[in-house]
Specification:
alpha/beta; TIM Barrel; 40% helix; globular; binds zinc ion
Amino acid sequence: MALTLCDVGPRDGLQNEPDALAPAVRAELINKLAAAGLPRIEAVSFVRDDRIPQMAGAEEVVAEIERRDGVEYAGLVLNEQGFERLRATGLDRVNVTLGATDTFNRRNGNASLVEATARVERILAEADRPTTATISVAFGCPFEGEVDPGVVVELAGRLEADELGLADTIGVATPSAVRSLVKRTLALGKPVGFHGHNTRNTGYANALAALEAGATVLDASIGGLGGCPYAPRATGNIATEDLVYLLEGEGIETGVDLDALIHVSQWLETLLGRQLEGQVYRAGVSAVASP
Ligand code: ZN
């Protein structure tokens, strides 16, 4: 099965930016990513505007998307109200997520692991379009430490999603752990994706390991958006353009126009007024220095 790259920048990335961008600007980012050839984009999250102002106006964002053939536009929902909002849009895919540990779910979603699982199961049962269920902190939890891979696989096996995602939310994994968990999750008989953060500089090696183990979806974020630049322990996503450079160099087709993607990061750098985490957009594609 071909690789699907999913850019989570408009959602996971911008959600963690200090400033909220207007829906029209967020839609412009999505349109630029689609034009660069990204096959899938996590466009919005349906949450309460007062809780996460960065994600306010999801419907307005979706309304301004210039749909392109061959691009799948996904939305993240955290509860049934969110799903009802997504249902009213033309988005193609429903993304749901829950943490692998009880404490992570309590801190992030105000629910126990049992309650969070039930909530995700209810959304999946109602979903009227393709679904991806991603298990956060699948390799390590900021509150509980190491996570038992057996627990993650057991949890994944309960979820009636079309596709399963494994997220290294705090960027602690190394390739052998990723390879092993991807393989065990694949045994459940569904496509598996990997969402890596580069907190400890293992994100790209992990993504490659996931792919070698059989993962068919890789998440990344344009420019590496996603780590709060003002947080002492920033946990940025891997940068899409850096991942594309790596994959294409390894002979793995992504379908993405790397030059176009680099232009998107340059545009974002100006827009946000700071240097982004990604390195390829600054170094350039060619080894030959430009005049
Ligand atoms: Zn992330």
